[in-house]
UniProtKB/TrEMBL annotation:
The keyword Transcription applies. This is GntR family transcriptional regulator. Residues 252-263 have a biased composition (Basic and acidic residues). The keyword Transcription regulation applies. Keywords: DNA-binding, Transcription, Transcription regulation. Residues 28-95 form the HTH gntR-type domain. GO terms for molecular function: DNA binding; DNA-binding transcription factor activity. Residues 241-279 are annotated as: Disordered. Pfam families: FCD, GntR.
Amino acid sequence: MQSGRFGSRSDVAGTFFNLFDANPDAIKTLPDQLAERLVELIINGTFLPGERLHEVMLSERFEVSRGPVREALRLLEREGLVTMASRRGASVTRLTEKHLNDIFPVRAALMSVCAEELALRHSDTVQDLLDEATEKLFEASRNGNVSEYIVLVYQASMYIAEASGNEIARRILFSLGRQTLPLSRMVFENPGHRQDWSNNWCGIVDGIRAGDPTAARIAVFQLIGDIKAAALDALRRRDAAAHQSAKSVTASREDGAGTEEKPRSRRVRSRPGAPSTGP
């Protein structure tokens, strides 16, 4: 029997903010709602990395005052999705290769600790939920439902952290997982990357099922290593495309400037009795 714990949310952003919330039916504040909508727009590429997030523009878009918008941006700053700078305001965080090289080893270390704990404990309830997540991952991948697959990847990964009972690891993994969301769509639009992630996930689940913490740990490092390589490739492709676009704009402007007509010199007619200005 399916628990409905995985892939049941229709809103992608709600998954990333309220996953395993102790009180999911609690009324959300307006800043919380705005933060979720902004996450959705960042994930689907409406707001690109480095793009300014003007409070006035956002307040008009969402038809709210600037106060709740400002609070929502602060929430996203804490999650690493938005960067705040003095005199410049908020912008979508621009991930760098160094950022990714720092994030993924930490994720691998913490997730492996959680997976090892689950392998040692071996809970039938946890195993049933891991199997449910696996089934839904493969289903979403086969159907080419990228949005659903991204949700499931996040839910499944974070469930390992939550089920382990390690609260410190859970909090850090939740935060680090959110920071790489802007690259998730570029990575998982590739069916090969979806297949690789699903296969590596199966390795983790099988290690936990067998009560083998070493196998579970090795599978975690394989999964994180592969997704790190895919994320770095997506980042380089995105940056190369942005660079090429900027070059094209510059070249277009230069071509336009070169073809502009030079202003014609005017011949001034001299007044009677005035010296001629002509040749």
